[in-house]
Amino acid sequence: MHPLLRKAIRERFGRLNEVQTKAFREVSSGKSVLIIAPTGSGKTEAAVLPVFNEILEEGLKPISALYIAPLKALNRDLLERLEWWGQKLGITVEVRHGDTSAYRKAKQTKNPPGMLIITPETLGVILTVKSLRKHLENVRFVIVDEIAELVDNKRGAQLLLGLERLAEIVDFRRIGMTATVGNEEEVREWLKADVIVKPSWRKNYRFHVLYPKPGERDMELAKKLSLSPEIAARLGLLWEIVEKHGKALIFTNTRQFAEILAHRLKVWGKPVEVHHGSLSREARVKAERALKEGKIKALICTSSMELGIDIGDVDVVIQYMSPRQVNRLVQRVGRAKHRIGEVSEGYVITSNVEDYLQSLVIAKHALEGRFEAVEPMGGLDVLAHFVVGLLIEYKRLPRERPYEIAKRAYVYRDLSWEDYLDVLRVLEDARLIGYDEESGLLYLRRGAFQYYYENLSTIPDEVSWRVFDAGSGHVIGRLDESFVMDLEEGMDFVMNGRSWIVLKIDDEARLLKVRESKSLESAIPSWEGEMIPVPFSVALDVGRLKRELSFDFEKAKRLLKGVEFSEEELRRAFREIKDEPFSTDRDIVVESTPKALVIHADFGNRANEALGRLVHSLLILRYGRVFSVRSQAHAIVFKTPFQLNPEEVKGYLYQEPESLEFIVSRAMRDSHAYRWRMLNVAKRFGALRRDARIRRIERLFEGTVVERETLSELYHDKVDVRKGELVLEMLNRGTMRVKTELRREPSTLARLNMTVGGEFLLSGVLERDEILELFRKRLLDHEVVLVCTNCGWHSKTKVVRLQNIELRQCPRCGSKMLAVAHPIDAEEFLPVLEKVRHGKPLERKEERTYRKLLKAADLVDSYGFEAVLALASYGTGPDTAARILAQYKGDALLVALMERERQFIRTRRFWVDKKENETGNSQKEV
User: Fold this and answer.
1) What is the DSSP letter of 532?
2) Is residue 229 within 8 Å of 218, Cβ to Cβ?
């Protein structure tokens, strides 16, 4: 070891630990190495110190090493640590990515650093920069950080092809780092490492899985925060754990839920901050610093905090609701007391019986070391980009050369010559490359450079859509295009913890016009895209646990040995479902209710997606497109216009396994998700320009390699056809059976899966009185204009201010004809009134405007404040208000107005372009 490095190690942490020593020995002996170790094991130093040592010992020229990290891992802590080592050793360490200034890039070309930190995308850039090419010939090491973040997606495929392009220039060793994964050998082959280095010791964890029941004190908190007692109990327990242990990380599964949970705790007055990938860097740094300095007690975060960000010592990790995967739980809990030899302690606070049983199984799998495999992913669209990149480097190449280089990469080892030729055809049709048959050479064409640099990232460009609330007249936020692709007019979705109904989708303006609805049950979770899928193995073991609980409680307890849980909570959880239908690892249950059909099936999100699309397709064939379907980890839910015969649906599940892929692929072609994926795949192929927007894209690429790649991507990410086929095989063999239930009311588990599955930290399913109170509060907050229909006096105000005012006469002229109107209606009325007062004739439209406000004034005079409420509600003009006010009073009036709103929103899109509706009210009735 070089003396400078020995001195720096003593200063930093005394001596190398076991993993660092092993890695140093293997790398120094000339091997490529994969380092697998838990969080806090010193993986970064294990990877870079032998590299720094060789740079010093051999006097290697820059750029000697490339350090490649996923973008979100490029945090300042990593850079600060590497720069510290570089300063101590006299080796320059610099970063280069999309945000690096032109000045900095030019400087790196003239005076290259010893180690350059880049992203996978940056590698694709520097390989084509002539002035950097001579420096790349000096690279002796490529270090790849957070490999598990790359293996199972197209960024990883792009990286592997980039490394093969680099291997055409120079011979180098590969060093990879990852947390524990379920397929270590495959990841080693993916990286092309010679050996795996990992610690001889096993990291110790203590997992507590909790299912709290509300007590007396929770009732007070529930009242204070307007929550259900159950949610109050979870929040109370959560804060008890924080107080007991000290500094805490609280993990949620989605960014949206992190925001909601943080908001509720802040309202309670607790010192917390939120941390997730959508926040600005400044906001994240501020939150990290606040925890490190003890200004707050807990940080509420998502997967962005699984990585090695320096936030000081954490005493405990709390997972709010099931972590959904073993790897996630271990990564997250590993942040607590992550020094070698310490026991990392984590609590999982669960929200319902399914959540609880799933969390118990995941904790048990974690203790047994049963980690999920990361599935390597290739991609023919990524291959197309690689071919163009090679031609930018070499100008002309024999047609077989890109094929030979690509096949050296693990994910393209089985690439067929036919698929490769299909890729070349797409590139030729797009006029990006050409092929000279005489010479047998591929060559570049005009447009290739633009295509290459526009498609450096395999992550789709997310165009955001504005969400416009028609009620308030304000833009309330933005949604990613990938989410909007799953919406249609009349559908509900969730945003900011509230549900909204889509009134209109404006493609040109990229605008969603929405109105708040109270239908939490029918809303699509807006976090669906980021929700972590539950694996087949976990879901199946939840089924096994339910089966054992129903036959032998003591045996079921033994299945969970090592996990910290309360026997009483386990008994209570099973009591909630034991007298109702539930699935197991041997039973599927088809439960039919008047408005929904639920297939209880413990196969995880992706396998259930395949089975759900199968049944949905067969239902459509018989009844038409009158059903919607949503697949979850333990159930497939169909919304139905009538009660289905469960025996009929049972028959649909007994299909030949070989037919599943065909039926699913046909079904997926009709989905918005398919069209959105195809759009992005076609752009990555160069078959479409980046700014192209085509509504019926599936017709354009039917039967092409673009279609094949789109389906392949969906199978990898969303739909597990192979596991679906396994289920069908078990049904046909008789090792799995289907039970049926015809019910008037849904069972506990059916109701659980019919709701959105997330937790809004509202009062769960709202009681009627709570809904009416929310509706009333919204009406009171509505802005209206009080107008005298006699003299034109007017005043803009909120409905609440009119509640206790005598609405009897105009303050200017004393007239009793005071109307309440929407601001736009009032604006239209005033010039019309002027014409009336001057005796001028009115046009037909003006006459309607005049009569409308006269009728509104008459209603206010007759019904007082109740008329104000009616006229302030959405879609209720004077004619409709008169009909409702004549029939209803008090709470009944609010119910009628709510129903009118909902009906108006549902039907609005069929007549919104008409000037007037059938009753003569303008479409602006509010």
Assistant:
1) P
2) yes
pLDDT (0 to 100) of residue 223 = 82
Are 786 and 861 a contacting pair, CB within 8 Å?
Answer: no
- Closest by CA to 575, choosing from 598, 600, 553, is 553
Contact predicate 571/553, CB 8 Å: yes
Q: Alpha helix locations (H) across 90-153?
A: 102-110, 120-126, 130-136, 148-151
Which tokens sit at 659? Answer: 């037919």
Length of the chain: 926
CA–CA distance, 560 with 275 (Å, rounded to integer)? 32
Q: Which residue type does 835 have? A: K
The whole-angstrom separation of Cα 358 and Cα 361 is: 5
CA separation for the pair 648, 19 (Å, rounded):
58
| Mean pLDDT for the chain overall | 84
Cβ contact 474:468 at 8 Å: yes
Q: Quick one: what percent of the chain has pLDDT higher than 70?
A: 87
3-state DSSP call for residue 348?
strand
Q: How would DSSP label each residue in 172-239?
A: -EEEEEE---S-HHHHHHHHT-SEEE--SSPPPEEEEEE-----HHHHHHHHHHT--HHHHHHHHHHH
Give the residues across from 599 on adjacent strands: 590, 636
**pLDDT > 50? residue 767:** no
279-288, Cβ contacts within 8 angstroms, sequence gap of 24 or more: 285/76
So what's the pLDDT on residue 37? 87
Residue-by-residue DSSP string for 272-311 = EEEE-TTS-HHHHHHHHHHHHTTSSSEEEE-GGGGS----
C-alpha torsion sign, points 683, 686, 691, 692: negative
Backbone angles phi, psi at 612, to 5 degrees: -65, -45
Supply the pLDDT for residue 182: 87
Using left for φ > 0, alpha for ψ between -120 and 50, and beta otherwise, residue 275 falls in beta
At residue 488, the pLDDT reads: 60
Q: Which of 200-204, 299-303, 439-443 has the largest mean confidence?
A: 439-443
What would the pLDDT profile of 823-844 be if each residue is shown by its tens digit?
888 889 999 999 998 889 999 8
Q: C-alpha angle 871/872/875, rounded to 5°?
A: 75
Q: For residues 180 and 373, is the Cβ–Cβ distance under 8 A? A: no
CB 643 within 8 A of CB 693: no
| pLDDT value, residue 538 | 95
How deeply is 471 buried, as exposed, middle or buried, from its count of CB atoms within 10 A (0-12, 13-18, 19+)?
middle
Q: How many CB atoms are located within 10 Å of the residue 807 CB?
A: 17
Average pLDDT value for residue range 768-791: 77
362, 398 contact by CB (below 8 A): no
Query: Which neighbouring-strand residues pair with 115?
Result: 65, 93
Beta-carbon contacts of residue 606 (< 8 Å; ≥ 6 apart):
533, 536, 718, 719, 720, 723
Using one digit for the tens of pLDDT, what is the confidence trace for 319-340? 999 999 998 898 888 877 756 6
Q: pLDDT per residue over 699-731, tens digit each? A: 778 888 998 999 998 888 889 999 999 999 999
Each residue of 592-603: pLDDT tens digit?
Answer: 999 899 999 999
Dig out the tokens for 702 from the structure.
């039917």
Would you say 156 and 411 are in contact if contact means Cβ atoms under 8 Å apart? yes
Q: Cα–Cα–Cα angle for 920, 921, 925, nearest 5°? A: 175
Point out which residues pair with 348 in neighbouring strands.
Answer: 209, 319
Tokens of 227: 């929550």
In 3D space, the residue among 589, 600, 587, 590 whose CA is nearest the CA of residue 645 turns out to be: 590
537 residue type, one letter? S
Answer yes or no: is pLDDT of 768 > 60: no
Q: What is the mean pLDDT of residues 759-776?
A: 52
Q: Pick from 301, 328, 335: which is nearest to 39 by CA?
A: 335
CA-wise closest residue to 628 among 485, 532, 754, 526: 754
Number of Cβ within a 10 Å radius of residue 371: 20
